[in-house]
Specification:
Blueprint (H helix, E strand, L loop, with lengths): L2 E7 L9 H17 L5 H19 L1 H10 L1 H28 L5 H36 L5 H20 L6 E9 L8 H7 L13 E4 L2 E9 L7 H11 L2 H8 L5 E9 L14 E2 L11 E7 L4 H7 L14 H11 L4 H9 L6 E7 L5 E7 L6 E5 L2 E5 L11 E4 L11 H4 L2 E6 L9 E5 L13 E2 L15 H7 L1 H9 L3 E4 L2 E4 L7 H9 L4 E6 L2 H17 L6 E5 H7 L8 E7 L5 H11 L4 E6 L12 E4 L14 H21 L7 H19 L2 H11 L5 E5 L3 H23 L3 H4 L2 E5 L2
Parallel strand pairs: 18-19, 18-20, 20-21, 21-22, 23-24
Antiparallel strand pairs: 1-5, 1-11, 2-4, 2-5, 3-4, 6-7, 7-8, 8-9, 9-13, 10-11, 10-12, 12-15, 13-14, 16-17
Helix pairs in contact: 1-2, 1-4, 2-5, 3-4, 3-5, 3-6, 4-5, 5-6, 6-8, 11-12, 15-20, 15-21, 17-20, 18-19
Length: 749
C-alpha cells in the first residue's frame, strides 16, 4: 500500500477577508456556547457550529492564509477564540456525562450530532486553517508576495496530506515541485552556479533539479527502513525550507505557478532507497533527454520487466521500481509525436496489474494526468476554491474540501468491450482548478466520459477523525481514547431513575421490535459481524444469553459470511439480527443484512458511523461512541470496547422486554458498566509501570510454546521442528548465551 498526493491550483483572485468578518462569527459562537443551558442544547450547538463554519470558509485557501499571515493579531485572536469555544464544548460534554443522563435518547443523539459538528468546525479553524497559515509562513518567510504564498501553500497541503497517507506505507516519500513562469534567466551564471551539482542526476535523488523546457523541476526525497510516522515529511520540509534556489524561483515573478506531485511508499518492487522512491522522472541512460515527465504509482505493474526489455529502456541499475516505466514510456510517445493525453493513455493501457497513477509533464506544466485501473486502488479528486487536490484516500483531501470525485477503475464504459474500456484516465487543467469544467475524463480506450455534478461525493470524515496528535502511532492514540469512547457509548442510554440504573435505548430499539420481542414473534437472535466485530458479537451474544437465560430467546453469534452461506431460511420473520460494524461499510456484513432483511428478519445495527451504508439498511441503530469516532489503526481497540458496551446495553434492553433470567444481576452489571471507563483510565495510568516491567522481563524470556489440538497438534509439531531448525541455524551463526537456552515444546491445549 502506498499513498499519492497531487496539487493543481490557479492563481486566486479572492481578496483576503477583513479581520472583523472572521472574528464576529467566532465571538458569536463563543457567546452561544458560554450561555448554552440544559434546554434547547441541540439548537444552540447547531447555531454555534454554523458561526464557526462561516469563519472557517473565510479562512480557507490562499485568501485565508494571506489574511492570517498579514495580521498577527488576527491569527492570535482566532486561536484564542477557537480555544474558548472548544473549552465550552468540553464543559457541555462533561455535564452530559456527569448529570444529564435522564434526557430522552433521541435528544441525546441530537446533542451528540451537534457536538460532533461543533467540534469539527472548531477543529478546522484551529488545527487546519491556523496550522496551515503558520506552516506556510515558516516556508515562505515574512512579507511573502502572493505568488510565493500560493506556491508554498501547495507544498504545505501536499506535505500535510502525505503525513496522513503514511499509514499506507512510510518507508520512503518524495515530493516534486514543477515551477513555471519563474522569471529566472536559466542561462545566467548565477542560476547555472546554483544548479551545478544538482542537475543531471540519473537517479533523481533528493535535491535534484532539472531545467526542462524553460521550467524548473525540484525533487525532495527521504528513505529509511526504520523510523516513526512523520519522520519523512519532517525531512522533506527541512530540505524544502533550506532550498534557496527554490525560494528564488518562486519569488522572482508575480506570475509563478506550481504543480506538486507527492508519494509515500511501501516498497513492493525495488529496495528502500531514494532512487526507488517516487516520483520518478523520464530520464534514461544513453538517450538524449526527451520530453520531461514525472510519475508516481500505487499498485504493481506486473509486466514492467517485459516493457523494459522490449522497449530497450535505459534505466539505471539502482532503479528497480516498476514505476520508472511510466514516465519513460510516456516521454517516448511524446517524442514520437503524440500529444500528452494520448501519450499517457496509451502508456497506462499497456500496463498489466492494478494501478493508480498520477503524472505531470513539462510539455503542459499546468496539467495533471491520472489513471486508475483494477481493484484495490483508488484516486479521489477534491474540488476546492481554485484548487484540485488529488489523493489515494479521502483523508488526503478533507483538510481542503469535502467534495470529491472518485475515479472508477473497474466498471467498463462499454459492456461490449470490457477489457478495452475498464479503467479511467483524467486530465486536470489548472485554468479550471476547483471546477468540473477543469476535469476531462476518458475510458482506457480514449472514449470521452462526461462528468456531472451529481457524481461528486461528500466526505463523512474530517481531519479531526484522522489526527494522530502527539502520539507516535495511531494504535497508542486509540487505546488511550478507549475510556472516552466507552463513556460516550453509555451517554444517555444508561440512565438513573429513582436511584436505580436503567437502560433506555429509545428508537435504537424500535417500538415494533419491542412488541415483537414481548409477544414472542421474535423467537431467536443472531449476532453477526466480521473480524473483531464478530468477536464483539460473541460478547454481545453471551451477555444476552446470560440476561435472558437463553431458553425463551435462543442466541447465536456467527460471522456474517457463515450466516449468508449456511444459515439463511426462506422465512426469517421470527429472527432478530444484530449486525456489528465499526465503519458501517463492511461488505460481507452489509450484504448479509440485505439477505436477511429480504427474508423478513428484523435488524438492529451497532455501528460507529452516522450516515454509513449499514444505517440505511436496518430497523434500528445503536451508535458507539458519539457516532463518529474513526479508528485508523489496524488492530481494533476503542471500537471493540465500545461495541461490547453497546452489546451489553442492548442485551439488558432486550431482557427487559422478554423477561430477565432468574437471578440475573442487572443492577450489578449496569453499575459495572458505568464504572468501567474510570477503571480503564486507571489501567492506562499504569503504562509507565508496564513499560518498566516489559523492559525488565521480556528480553530475558526465550521460551516458546506452540499449541494445538487434534490435527492442529500435528501442525504444531511440524512448526516446532521448523522453528528449532531456524534457532539452531541462528545459534551456529551467533552462539550467544541467550540463544542456547531457547526452549521449544509442542503441547495440546
Amino acid at each position: 500500500m502506498c499513498g499519492i498526493i497531487a496539487i493543481v491550483r490557479r492563481r486566486s483572485t479572492t481578496a483576503p477577508p477583513a479581520a472583523r468578518d472572521v472574528l464576529d462569527p467566532l465571538e458569536a459562537a463563543a457567546g452561544i456556547v458560554r450561555d448554552a443551558g440544559t434546554g434547547g442544547l441541540p439548537a444552540a450547538l447547531g447555531a454555534a457550529a454554523a458561526e464557526v463554519e462561516r469563519a472557517d470558509r473565510l479562512l480557507r485557501g490562499s485568501a485565508g492564509v494571506r489574511a492570517l499571515l498579514a495580521d498577527r493579531g488576527l491569527l492570535v485572536s482566532v486561536e484564542q477564540l477557537a480555544a474558548t469555544i472548544d473549552a465550552g464544548i468540553g464543559r457541555i460534554e462533561r455535564q452530559l456525562d456527569d448529570g444529564a443522563s435522564n434526557r430522552p435518547p433521541q435528544d441525546l443523539e441530537d446533542i451528540n450530532a451537534g457536538l460532533s459538528r461543533a467540534r469539527d468546525a472548531v477543529w478546522a479553524v484551529e488545527r487546519d486553517r491556523v496550522r496551515t497559515a503558520k506552516a506556510v509562513g515558516d516556508l515562505a518567510g515574512p512579507a511573502a508576495p502572493v505568488a510565493l504564498v500560493d506556491a508554498f501553500l501547495s507544498v504545505q497541503q501536499a506535505l500535510s496530506a502525505l503525513d496522513r497517507l503514511e499509514v499506507r506505507g512510510r518507508d520512503s516519500a518524495g515530493l516534486q515541485v514543477l515551477v513555471r513562469n519563474h522569471g529566472l534567466d536559466l542561462a545566467s551564471a548565477a542560476v547555472r552556479a546554483a544548479v551545478a551539482g544538482r542537475g543531471s542526476d540519473p537517479l533523481f535523488t533528493s535535491m535534484a533539479v532539472d531545467t526542462v523546457q524553460g521550467h524548473l523541476s525540484f525533487v525532495y526525497k527521504a528513505a529509511a527502513e526504520i523510523g516513526e510516522l512523520g519522520d519523512n515529511t519532517k525531512a522533506l520540509r527541512v530540505a524544502i525550507r533550506g532550498d534557496e534556489l527554490l525560494r528564488l524561483a518562486l519569488s522572482s515573478s508575480d506570475d509563478v505557478e506550481t504543480t506538486v506531485l507527492g508519494h509515500t511508499r511501501w516498497a513492493s518492487v525495488g529496495i528502500i532507497s531514494q532512487a526507488n522512491a517516487h516520483p520518478l522522472n523520464s530520464h534514461e541512460l544513453g538517450r538524449a533527454d526527451g520530453p520531461y515527465v514525472c510519475a508516481v504509482l500505487n499498485g504493481d505493474v506486473d509486466n514492467f520487466a517485459d516493457l523494459k526489455a522490449n522497449e530497450g529502456l535505459g534505466i539505471a541499475n539502482e532503479i528497480q521500481t516498476d514505476a520508472k516505466v511510466i514516465p519513460t514510456l510516456t516521454s517516448r510517445r511524446l517524442q514520437a509525436g503524440d500529444d500528452l493525453l494520448e501519450s499517457f493513455r496509451s502508456t497506462v493501457a499497456r500496463l498489466d496489474g492494478s494501478v493508480a497513477i498520477a503524472a505531470s509533464s513539462a510539455s503542459a506544466p499546468g496539467d495533471l494526468l491520472l489513471a486508475l485501473r483494477g481493484s484495490g486502488q483508488a484516486l479521489y479528486v477534491g474540488l476546492a476554491d481554485d484548487l484540485f487536490i488529488v489523493a489515494s484516500e479521502p483523508y488526503g483531501v478533507v483538510e481542503e474540501t469535502h467534495r470529491y470525485l472518485r475515479m472508477d477503475g473497474e466498471t467498463p464504459s462499454d459492456p461490449d468491450n470490457p477489457a478495452g474500456t475498464r479503467g479511467q484516465v483524467i486530465r486536470l487543467r489548472s485554468a479550471g482548478a476547483g471546477e468540473l469544467a477543469g476535469v476531462e475524463r476518458y475510458s482506457y480506450d480514449g472514449t470521452a466520459l462526461a462528468v456531472s455534478g451529481n457524481e461528486l461525493a461528500t466526505a463523512q470524515i474530517t481531519t479531526r477523525d484522522i489526527d494522530r496528535g502527539d502520539f507516535p502511532h495511531f494504535l497508542l492514540k486509540e487505546i488511550t481514547e478507549s475510556p472516552s469512547s466507552f463513556r460516550k457509548t453509555l451517554r444517555g442510554k444508561l440512565v438513573e431513575i429513582d436511584g436505580a440504573l436503567r437502560v433506555n435505548l429509545g428508537d435504537s430499539l424500535p417500538t415494533a421490535t419491542r412488541e415483537a420481542l414481548r409477544s414472542g414473534a421474535i423467537r431467536r437472535v443472531l449476532v453477526i459481524g466480521q473480524g473483531t466485530a464478530a468477536i464483539a458479537g460473541q460478547a454481545t451474544a453471551a451477555a444476552l444469553e446470560a440476561a435472558t437465560g437463553g431458553l425463551r430467546l435462543p442466541v447465536s453469534a456467527v460471522t456474517a459470511t457463515e450466516l449468508s452461506g449456511f444459515d439463511l431460511r426462506a422465512d426469517m420473520a421470527d429472527t432478530l439480527v444484530v449486525a456489528i460494524s465499526q465503519s458501517g461499510t463492511t461488505t460481507d456484513t452489509n450484504r448479509t443484512v440485505d439477505l436477511v432483511r429480504g427474508r423478513g428478519a428484523t435488524v438492529i445495527a451497532i455501528v460507529n458511523r452516522r450516515n454509513s451504508d449499514l444505517t440505511d439498511k436496518v430497523d434500528g441503530v445503536l451508535y458507539t461512541s458519539d457516532g463518529r469516532d474513526v479508528e485508523m489503526a489496524v488492530p481494533s481497540t476503542k471500537a471493540f470496547y465500545s461495541q461490547i458496551a453497546a452489546g451489553f446495553l442492548l442485551a439488558v434492553a432486550i431482557a427487559d422486554e422478554v423477561g430477565p433470567a432468574p437471578g440475573f444481576p442487572e443492577a450489578d452489571v449496569l453499575a459495572a458498566l458505568r464504572e468501567l471507563p474510570d477503571l480503564m483510565e486507571r489501567t492506562l495510568a499504569c503504562r509507565p509501570f508496564a513499560a518498566e516491567a516489559a523492559q525488565r522481563f521480556a528480553p530475558s524470556r526465550r521460551h516458546w510454546a506452540v499449541v494445538g489440538n487434534g490435527l492442529n497438534r500435528i501442525a504444531a509439531s511440524e512448526a516446532r521442528i521448523k522453528i528449532s531448525e531456524l534457532c539452531y541455524k541462528s545459534i551456529a551463526c551467533d552462539a550467544t548465551e541467550d540463544k542456547k537456552h531457547i526452549d521449544l515444546s509442542a503441547e495440546p491445549l
